[in-house]
Amino acid sequence: MSLTELLSHLRALPEMILLAGASALMIVDLLSKHAGRRTSFWFAQAVLALCFVATLYVIAESGGTRYYIFYGLYVSDMLSQVLKLFATLAVSAALVYARPYLLDRGLLRGEFLTLMLFALLGIMVMVSANSFLTLYLGLELLSLCLYALVALNRDVAASSEAAMKYFVLGALASGLLLYGMSMIYGATGSLLLPEVAARAAGLAASSSGHVLLVFGLVFMVAGIAFKLGVVPFHMWIPDVYHGASTAVTLVIGTAPKLAAFAMALRLLVNGLPALAVDWQQMLTVLAVLSMALGNLAAIAQTNLKRMLAYSTIAHMGFMLLGLLSGVVEGNRLNAVDAYGAAMFYTVVYVLMSLGAFGVLLLASRKGYECERLEDMKGMNRRDPWVAFLMLLMMFSLAGVPPLAGFYAKLAVISSVVQAGQIWLAVVAVAFSLIGAFYYLRVVKLMYFDEPAGEVAPAGGGAARVLLSVNGVALLAIGILPQPLMTLCQVAIRSL
Amino acid sequence: MSLPYLSLAIWVPIGAALAVLAMGGDRNAPLQRMLALAGALAGFLVTLPLYAGFDTGTAQMQFEEFAPWIAAFNVNYHLGVDGISVLFMILNAFITVLVVVAGWSVIESRVGQYYASFLMLSGVMNGVFCALDGVLFYVFFEATLIPMFLIIGVWGGPNRVYAAVKFFLYTLAGSLLMLVALLYLYGKSGGSFAILDWHKLPLPLGAQQWLFFGFLLAFAVKVPMWPVHTWLPDAHVEAPTGGSVVLAAIMLKLGAYGLVRFSLPILPDASRELAWMMIALSLVAVVYIGLVALVQTDLKKLIAYSSISHMGFVTLGFFVFNAWGVEGALVQMISHGFVSAALFLCVGVLYDRMHSRMIADYGGVVNTMPRFAALMMLFAMANCGLPATSGFVGEFMVIMGAMQQSFWLAAAAATTLVFGAAYTLWMYKRVIFGAVANAQVAALKDINPRETLVLGLLAAAVLFMGLYPLPFTEVMHASVGELLRHVAQPK
Asked: For residues B73 and A411, what is the distance between their CA atoms, to the nearest angstrom?
C-alpha cells in the first residue's frame, strides 16, 4: 500500500477519532470516581469537538471533491461531511441537555455517554456509505445503541417495554431492508451504489428486470420508512418516544433523523435513480398518510412526548415531499432544489426537536417529569424566558414565519409546486393547518392558563444557555435563512 | 440622500418592542410605558416623511429599498409604497400611538409584554403594506398572527382562549393556500417573487381563476367577507380594547389591501370574470350583516358587525372597477380606521368603568359623562355616514361608483346608510340617552384628560377627513388610475 493510498484513508478521520474516543471513554469512565461523571462527560465532549474539527479539516482538504475510499465502500463528499457536522453538533447538544436530567435520576452512567458516541459513529458510517453493506453496518450500529439507550432506565417497566418493541420492530425492519438489498444485489450483481445505479438503469428498461428491481425496492422503501418513522411503519415511534426517558427520546428524535434522511438519499437517489418514478409514487403515499395520521393523532394526545412523537411522523412525511419531487418525467432539473429543501427541512427539524425536548428536560425536576400537556400550564408565569423559547419552537414547528420552520416548509412546498404537483402542495398545506392547532395549544397552555400548583422555574446552567442559543438560532435562521439553505444545496450538488 | 424611511417604519417599533421586553417584569412597568410611548411616537414620526416626500404625480413605487435576502429562491427585501399603500402606514403608526396611550393605566399585568406585542404588531403590519416581494409579504402577513394571538389570549375577556385559537386557525387556514398560489406564480414567472413582475405576467383565464380563489380565501378571511367572518365578532368581543382597535382599524385593512395589491392587478381577467360574485358577497355583508348588527345586545359585537358591514362596502368599491369605487373604497378603509378605532375606544372607556359590554346595563350615560357623550356622538354619526364626517366621503364615493355600474347596485349599497344609521343611533340612544339606568351609571366619572386626548385626536381626524378629503384622495389618484388601466386590459 503506497503512502498516498494510506493517507487517503484520512478522509475517514472523524470516524477514526470517534471510534478511538468512544473506546477510550469506556476506560476513562472506569477511572472516573466523580458521581457527576464530570471527567467522562467532558472527555466525551472533547471527542465530539475533535471529531467536529476533523470533519472541517476533511472538508477543507477535499475542497468539495468526492472521494471513494476503502475500495469504494465509503464515500467522502460534501453531503456526508456536512451531515456529520450537524450530527456531531446535535449529539453534543443532546449531551448538554440530558446531563442535569440524568444526574437527578442517577442515570448518567458511562454507558450512556459511550452508547451516544457509538450511535454517532453509526450515523457517520451511514451518511458516508457507498455500498449496501456499509450502510447496513452503520444502521445496525446506530440501532443497537439506540435499543440499549431506550432500555437504560431498566427499572421502569415502560422503558423496558418500549425497548423491546423497538428492538423487535427494528429487527424486522432491518430484515426487510436486507431482503430488499439482496434482491437488488441479485438483479444487479453489485453492492456498490454507483455500480448498482448503472446496472439498474440497463435492467429497468426490460419489463422482467424492472419487476425484479421493483420487488427489491418495495422492501428497501419499507426499511427506510421504518427508520424515518413514517406511516404505516410508524407504530414504534409513539411508544418509544413515550416509554424512553426524556433524555433518550431527545437523542432518538434528533441526530438519527439525519442518518435516516441520508439513508433514503443514498439508497434511492444514488442507488436507484432508474426507478425514480416507482419510488416517488411510494413516497407520495407514505408522505400523505404520515402527514394525515401524524397531525390528526397528535391532536388527541395529552402527553407532550407522545404529541411530539406524532409530530415527528408528520414532519418526516412532509420532508419526504422534498425527496419525491426531485425528478419530473426523467428530468432532474428540480433535483438540487428538491433534495436541498428536504435536507434543509431535516436539519431545521432536528434543531426544533432538540429545542422542544430540551425545554422538557430543563423543566423537569428530581421526582417530577415535565411531560404532560398540563405541565406546560402557566409556564410564562413560572419562567417567561423558557416559555418564550418554547413558543419559538412551537411556532417554528407549526411553520409560522418568521421562524426557521416556515422556510423549511416553504422550500419543500416550493419544490413540490415546481414539480407540478399542486394537489400535493394543497394537501401538505391543509395538514400543516391541522398541525398548527396542537402546537398552538401548547402556547395557549403556557401563556393563557394559570400554573397548576407550585412548580419551581426551569433549571439553569449550561443547558439553559444552550437552549437559548438553540431558540435564537431558529429565529436567526428565520430572518436570514440564506446561509443554511446554500450549505444544503452545496451538499446536495456533491451527490 | 434620504433615510430608508420604510425600513425605519418597520424596524423602529420592533426595536422598541425588544427594548421594552428587555426591561423585564412588571417592576419596571412605568418605565416600560414611557419607552413604549417613545417607540410608538418615533414610529409615527418616521412615517411622516413618507407623506411629505410623496410625489403624487406618479403611479410608480416610491421610497424603494432593495436588498437580496434569500438568493436560493430569489427572494428579496424589496420595499416600496405607492398611493394605495402609503396612507395605511401612517394610519397604522398613528393608531399605535393611540393604543399605547389608551392602555396606559388600564393594563396592569405583564405590561411590558402587552406593549411589546402592540409595537411588534405595528412594525410587522407596516411591513405588509410596503412589501413588494411575495415571500416578504407573506412573512409579514403571517407574522401579524403571533402578537395578535397573544394579545387576545393573554389580556382578553373570559372566553379569550376560544377566540384567540379561532382567530389564529381561521386566518392561517386562509393564508396557507395563498402560499401555494405564491409558489405557483413563482414557478410561472420563471423564478421571481417580485409582485410588480407578476403584474405583467400573462396567465390564462383558467389559472387566473384558481389563483383568484387561492388569494381570495386568504384576504376574505382577513377582510372579513361574509361568510368567513365569524371569527371577527368573537375576536373583537374577547380582545382587550387595544386589541380590538388595532384589529378593526388596521388588521382588517390587510385583507382589503391584499385584494388591490394581488388579486386585481395580477389576475385582472379573473377579477372581471368573478366580479359578480365579489359584488354579491359584498352586498350580503352590507345588508345582511347590517341587519345582524341591529339585533346585537353586546356593544363590542355590534361594532364588530358594523365593521364587517363597512368592509363589505370596501370590497364592493374595488369590484365596480372605476375610480369612484376604488378611491372610495380606499377612503372608506382609512375612515373606518379612525371611526372603528374611536368606537372601540369608547366602549373601552365605558367597560373600564362598568365592566360590562351589555347595552342593557347602560342608559343615561350623558347625565354623568357629558364630554364623553358628545365625542361618542360624533363617532356614531361618522359611523352612519353623516356628511361632514369621514364616514360620508367613502360611502358617497362608493355609491357613486356603483351608480356608474348599475342603479340597482347603488340602491342596494345605499341601504347601508339606513341600516348603519339604525343600528348605530339606536345603540347610542339606549346607552347614552334616557334616564340614568342604575346606580353604577349614576356613579360614572367623565373621561379624564388622557382619554379626552385620545378621543379628541380621533375626532379631529374624522372631522378633517370629512370636511377636506383632498389630502387623502390626491395621494391615491395616480396609483388608482394606473391600477384601473391595468385591470381593464386583458392579459
From this structure: 8
Q: Please give the span between the terminal C-alpha atoms of chain A, in angstroms, as a whole number.
A: 28
User: How long, in residues, is chain A?
Assistant: 495
Closest-CA distance, B194 to chain A, in angstroms, reads 16
- Whether B180 and chain A come into contact, CB under 8 Å, resolves to yes
Tell me the H-state helices in A265-383: 276-299, 304-323, 335-363, 379-382
Q: What span, in angstroms and rounded, lies between the C-alpha atoms of A291 and A428?
A: 7
Helix, strand or coil, per DSSP, at residue B247: helix
DSSP code at position B446: P
| Cα–Cα distance for residue pair A164/A159, rounded to 1 Å | 9
Residue A316 · residue A228 · CB < 8 Å: yes
| Residue A429 to residue B146, Cβ atoms within 8 A | no
Phi, psi of B68 (to 5 degrees): -65, 145
Taking the model in full, what pTM does it have? 0.86
Of the candidates A233, A221, A231, which has an alpha carbon nearest to the alpha carbon of residue A280?
A221
Q: Are A348 and A477 in contact (CB under 8 A)?
A: yes
- From A165, A163, A173, select the one nearest A140 (Cα to Cα): A173
- β-partners of residue A474 are none
Here the cell at position A45 is 465532549
Give the span between the Cα atoms of B365 and B370, in whole angstroms: 8
Q: What is the pLDDT along chain B (491 residues), one digit of tens a residue?
A: 478 888 888 888 888 888 888 887 777 778 888 888 888 889 898 888 888 888 888 878 888 888 888 777 788 888 888 888 888 999 999 999 988 888 887 777 788 888 888 999 999 999 999 999 988 898 898 888 888 888 888 887 788 888 888 888 888 888 888 888 888 888 888 888 888 888 888 888 888 888 898 898 889 988 888 888 888 888 888 888 888 898 888 888 998 999 988 888 888 888 888 888 889 998 888 888 888 888 888 888 888 998 888 888 889 888 888 888 888 899 989 999 899 999 999 988 888 888 888 888 888 888 888 888 888 888 998 888 888 888 888 888 888 888 888 888 888 888 888 888 888 988 888 888 888 878 887 888 888 888 888 889 899 999 898 888 888 888 888 888 888 888 888 77
Please report which helix (H) or strand (E) contains residue B267, including its range: none
Identify the CA nearest to B145 among candidates B259, B47, B231.
B231
User: Which cell numbers in the block locate residue A446?
Assistant: 403556557
Q: Which residue of B has its CA nearest to A435?
A: B169
Q: Residue B180 is nearest to which of A406, A429, A485, comparing CB atoms?
A: A429
SS3 A67: strand
Q: Helix, strand, coil proportions of chain A in percent (round to 5)?
A: 80, 5, 20
**One-character DSSP codes across B65-125:** EEEEEEGGGTEEEEEEE-TTTHHHHHHHHHHHHHHHHHTTTT--SSHHHHHHHHHHHHHHH
Q: CA of B143 to nearest chain A CA: how many angstroms apart? A: 6
Residues 6+ apart with CB under 8 A from B286: B309, B312, B313, B316, B412, B413, B415, B416, B419
Cβ-count burial of B27 within 10 angstroms (0-12 exposed, 13-18 middle, 19+ buried)? exposed
Q: Which residue has the cell 387556514?
A: B173
Cα–Cα dist A468/A386, whole Å: 8
How far apart CA B390 and CA B462 sit, in angstroms, is 5
Dist CA A457 CA A363 (whole Å): 7
Rounded to a whole number of angstroms, the distance from the CA of A447 to the nearest CA of chain B is 7
Residue among A149, A138, A102, A192 nearest A18 (CA): A138
Q: Best mutation site among B146, B152, B175, B217 for testing chain A: the one with the most A CBs within 10 Å? A: B146
Q: Judge: A444–B153 Cβ closer than 8 Å, yes or no.
A: yes
Fill in the DSSP letter of residue A372: B
- Residue whose entry in the numeric block shows the C-alpha cell 417607540: B39
Calpha distance A355→A388 (Å, rounded): 12
